[in-house]
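Record pair follows.
FIRST:
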Amino acid sequence: MVKLADFTEWAANVGYEMPTELHSLLDKSQPDQERDRKQEPMKVNPYPDKPLDPREQNSLLKIIAALCEKAGVSADQDGLDKELEKITETLGVLITARVIKKHLRKAAELVK
């Protein structure tokens, strides 16, 4: 089983970010040392020479959609992209609202 903290860190590293509501779940589920680890700067892409396989990308998008569902938010919710942009900046892995919106839209389309 994959820990939520590990998944969100990995997702951020490959350019995907979780909705704000998932961060609150993450904070509640983590022991203090894992929470402290989350504050460390993350590597943006640990595998820069390895492109994402389309099946892997679709799987990630479906996971994002499932996590949105669990958190009670819609991947196409107004303002979610800007909120996530602020979070990624805080994490030290800035992803623009435009890029976030593009990926959230793809995630929402895959589960319709």
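SECOND:
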Amino acid sequence: MRFLADWLADSIRFGLALTMALGAMQIPALAQSYRAALTQVAEAGQRDIADRQRIAREYYRLPPDAPPGMVLDALRRSEPANAAGLVASAEQAALLRATAERLDRTSPITRPLVALWDGLTDDRAGKPAILRRAWQDLMPAVLLSAAPASYGLGGLIIGLLLARLLIAPLVAGRARHA
């Protein structure tokens, strides 16, 4: 019976440690997916802004190369809400681009933590929704580089600790009965 109990304890330790290691190795891939999603949303916003400015140039008979400030002035005179929406869209696109650039400047080891923290705590420009979408679109993969390996090792250690904590009451109870 002791053999089976030891085998079960070892299996739980190994399974939990391996699961945590592989799960932790996905964190850098999620950060990369989040960064790519930020760029995609910012680019889509920029295309929308360009289309809205083009339409306003045509409607107000502005020159095709009229600067954005001139377009906004024309909108503010007759459609202040539309002008405010255009400014808000531009600010959101700029914020998302700035966030993606900040992630690019961050060390590969800390980038996943910075990306997750940003996506979870910064509600501006729909970042939590972008992080959720990145999570939904994530294709699990085992990447072999410094960041995933570091996170994998951390997951392995945490998994072993959790397994030890899970099994400790069983082992302690068995030791008292022996």
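COMMENT: The chain is about 85% helix and 0% strand.
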